[in-house]
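Risk register update: the risk of archive-format incompatibility is retired. Evidence:
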Amino acid sequence: MFPQDGGHLMNMTEQRVGELIIREQVPLAAMTTLGVGGPARYFTRVRSDADVQNAVNWAAERCAPLLMFGRGSNVLVSDAGFPGLVIRMGMRGITARLDGDTVLVTAGAGETWDRLVGYAVARGWAGVECLAGIPGFVGATPVQNVGAYGQEVGESIAQVEAFDLDTRAMITIDSEDCRFAYRSSRFKEEDRGRYLILRVTYRLRVGGSPSLRYVELARTLAEEGITTPTLAEVRHAVIRIRRNKSMLLDQRDPNTRSVGSFFVNPMLSTAALADLEAALPTDTHIPTFAADANIVKVPAAWLIERVGFQRGYARGAVGLSERHTLALINRGGATARDVLTLAQEIRDRVRDTFGVTLVPEPAFIGLTWDPDPQPTWYRTPHDC
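Archived output:
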């Protein structure tokens, strides 16, 4: 049920293109944390820029759509699978270069994210310590502008190196051009599917203090008698919090068979919030967190629980985590359609009750989040 490397698939029909091995009809479910989805028509793993170029050229010759695939921790793949070439990122390695009182840390897109966090914290480099324990690869972090416990990677990213499928060229995109927003970026919005992210560079603070902007994190440290925490103490506290919510990958814990939080916390204007509260019973108080000027963040979990979906809710092979309302879990034998159906019912009930439309976090492959179709996460060569 948890992501595998794909090496056990060597006996399937395969062909070589340079250093690449391209296989056919490769199951994707076992490469995702949710454990659902059909096969990839073609599948390969890239470890270098040359591999990427060869994979793109191979797909273009066959007019096959391309899909970049990481650790499978934030994706919902359709039961029919993917009809083109799935490229799994295998580019690893971490390098660092001092720059004044900061350090520029570059990691391959196939590097495990939590390893990078541990690498930085162990050296006293601040900027990503609150993002410990998040599953996935480095290459996925700019796409979602991954964030947790008061930090977002967009605050630390200096640049992104990528392969542009439109121009067939390697490019470098500076942080300000990534258009980071709450759980979003150009890679998720207007340029979805255009870039294959190869490497990411983060600017971290040498000897910097840890971030303590999140109330739950600060409270957890205070309860442990830690008033001036180190980076390592913050990282370990975050990991404990995530473990208690089943938000760490653990094959022994069925609650972790999910994509993490399925829905993004809604962002409302203060005026919209006032209108919403006016329509509710006078004793109902909606919890909020300040997000920006005249903008507040409303916990999606609170909305979901108020419309009748509680932790541990089960419907056949799918349900909600016993520890986290936002996590839709595969209870065993679930299909992508099962997951989508429950997610859409939750969305519809929240919208009908509160007038707030929940937005999903995971990438949908071969599925439509109707009534508004999502842009695709993949590209077909435009000369086809």
